[in-house]
Structures are given as structure tokens and as C-alpha cells.
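Incident log, structure service

09:12 report received: a user says their structure output differs between two submissions of the same chain.
09:20 pulled the input from the user's history:
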Amino acid sequence: MMRRALLSLALLCAGCSGKDDAAITVSVIGTSARAANPNVHLLDAPAGVLTGALMQGLVQYDARGEVEPALAERWLVTDDGLSYIFRIRRAKWSDGTPVTAEQVAQSLRASLSPVSRNPLKPLFAPVREIVAMTDSVLEIRLNEPQGNMLDLLAQPDMAILRGGKGTGPFRLHRSYPNARVLRPVIPDTAEEVSEEILARSERRVRGEPSANAVARFAMGNAALVLGGSFADYPMAHASGARALRRDNVPGIFGLQPVRADGPAGSRDIRRALAMAIDREAFVKRMRAQGWAATETLMPGPIDRYIEARPDWMPLARQARLDKARALIDASAKSLLKVSVSLPDGPGARLLFAQLASDWRQIGVEAVLARDPRSADFRLLDAVAPTPSALWYIWQFACGVAPVCSQETSASLSLARRATMDERARLFSEADQAISSDQLFIPIALPLRWSLVDPRLTGYADNPTGLHPLNRLGSAGN
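09:34 re-ran on a clean worker, output below:
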């Protein structure tokens, strides 16, 4: 245990010898940096980074997006896939009290309870019970195998907490209005660590607007910028391509109707708007090399499930415009105005310009909504936590989506009690209903980027879009 503790500290301090101040400063785009309870609050980028650093889960992702031990030092999966057994390592909560398997079980049960607002809760439907077998052994029992269980448990949303406190790998050392200073948790079995080494192993995390984060990085006052999206990508691109890194992440990026009345409430108008968008032109406008446009909800086949494709997908560009214009002419007696809610930022302005240009060709005027509550459509931009057909479809179930399909909800309801083979068919039916009714207008895959100091080690592009602070080596900023 002592050897492991010293090795962990060595990794945290990698590259910091010979520097007077080798702590790593990280800017995360979003609101102020605060950890949060994911069962109560939706985690934005700064909250996700802080929560993952202060309140680790049973497992976590390494720099390359592979699952590795965290609060659980090891685990095994039974041959039938119906049981995941975790051995909890010797650890303490931030208040100094020892961690027990029952406390961890209580945290997991809270995440999956009926009152929890955890966004991953629907994906844990196969969980039958969570049991502490001993003070250090925990078992998650399933009704059916779930191959992506470890990926789900590695998400910041599945942080293990007790009374709002976590177990590391960092602890909060100092707070400022918009920043937090973190230091690594040192096990009791480790030798005494000097104040100098602890200071050099700090992570200074700041949540701030994208313009501030990019400027701070450009001035050399931050070694890493996380949390970048399409909205601010042009700003990052202009700052210098050498430091700009992009994660190829799966997920959803497109428009969702938010009102059952007006143009958003008409299936034909939704289909016309979807057909008119020149997705490839927008992706080229963004100048994000390798970023992919898409016309389907799903990014591709998942397991035995094949994504639904809209019936207009085989049509050439001009044929799409002609068909879309005919639908608009039949649906609207005068010039049609469609309002869209988008985030702030130059990327969002490019998207709105693309929508306005494309929709104008079919007789629709695009309007940027000043109040999201009055918009006809809003942008959905989310990274999939794991390859799961259910995650994609759940976003559009009744009770979740503002405008929904009863057929989709019925298929999801039946899928809860269906066999795995039958579930694949029901998921296909639900996705086909979403596609046929155009309850989502796909545009591209999500775009996630970072700015990385070339001297920073322990960072790697990965398909999760998550970058653990405890794997970083100092850039000496």
C-alpha cells in the first residue's frame, strides 16, 4: 500500500522536479468551478471535472479512456454476467472517517432511487440490487447481463459520495470565488510528504467563459483548457492549431422541437427543415478537420441494433430542397418564421447562419430566440456516456422530451420487460418512430476540444471526452 501511494504521488508530480512552481492550472469552460451532487444537479464541464477529482467512483477512466480502478481496487464479473463484485480499497472520506462497502452501496442506491435526477439512471435498469457482502466487498446484481456497466460506473455522474463529501483522488485545499486548489489525497500508510512536494502536485481548477480560458492559455497562465464545444471552437482554432486537440466522441448534436404548437408541432414542417440543412457545408465552415456530419440519431449500428434512416436520406441536395419546399407550401399560407435557441459563441453564430441560409431556400425565415422558453427548436449537444441504444432513444421519450411520440414511449415501456432479442426490435421501432416523425433533426456528432500545453504529459485524445486530473504531469505553468 505504501509503495502504491508513493507511486501515485510520483505520477501526480511527474515532470515537476527542477521547477519552483510546477502546479498545473486548468481552465474549464463553463460556470464557476464547483463539485456537485449529480443526483440533484446536472453537471456542466467545470462541475464534472471537480466532481470526478474530489468524488471518485468505483472505477474511473485513464487518460486514454480505458476503465481503471478508483475506489474499487479490483473487481470480477461472474461468467453469466449477472454479478459485478468489487473490493473496496482502504480509503477515508474527506472528513477522515473510513469508507465501508455499505456506505458505497448506499451512494449507488441513491443514484438509482426514484427521486434521483441522475441522467444515467435509466441505463441502470438491469440492476436488481446492490449489496454490501462485507465491510470491503460490494456486489451489484443484475437481472440480465450489461456489458457497459463499468463504462457507466466510470462517469462523473456515478461519483461515490456521503453527505456531499467524496474520497479523492484529490481533496479541496483552498477555494477562491471562481477557482479551486486541489491537492492529492495521501494515504495514511504513506511516508510524510513535504509541503513543497504537495504544493508542486496541486491542480488549480478554474471555471470561466471560453474567451477568458483561451486568453489565459495564450498568455501562458494555464496549461490546459477543457470543456470546449462547437460554440467556441472557432475561437480556439484561431488561437493556434498546435495546442488544439479534439476528441472524437459519439453522441447527439442537432435540433429538438420544444413546442407542440406552431411550426415545431407540424411533422411535415419538421421534415422539411431537416431536409433543407446542408450539413456538410456547415461542418466545412467550422474547419474542424475530421468532424463528421450525420443525418441519423444513432452514429451507427450498436450491438444488434441498426440505426433508423430517414426516407429522404437517399435524395440528392436539389431533390431534398424541392420536396422540402413543397411541404412548406402545403403547410404555411404565408412566410413561415421558425425560432431557434442556441448557445452563445462564434460556432453557434455559424450554425445559425447556415440554418438561415438553408431554410431561406424553402421559404422559411430563421429567427434566433432571445428567450429559450419561447423557441420552436433548441439545440441538443451531448456526449453519449456509453454505446447504448437506450441512451439515444430515451432523450425523446414522453415525460423527457417536450414533443414526443407515444409509439416511442410504448416501445421503451415494453422493452423493460422484453428479452434481449425482443428489445433490439423494440428499440428499432422506437428509433424509427423518432425518425419518421422527425422528433430530432440530426446535424453532426458532438464536437469536443481542449487546448494542451505541449509540455503537459498524461493527456490523450479519447472517445469519452473526459480527462482525469490525476494523470497529468506538470507543464510548469
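09:41 both user submissions now match this output. Likely a transient worker issue. Closing.
09:42 reviewer note: The radius of gyration is 24 Å. The first strand starts at residue 24 and ends at 29.
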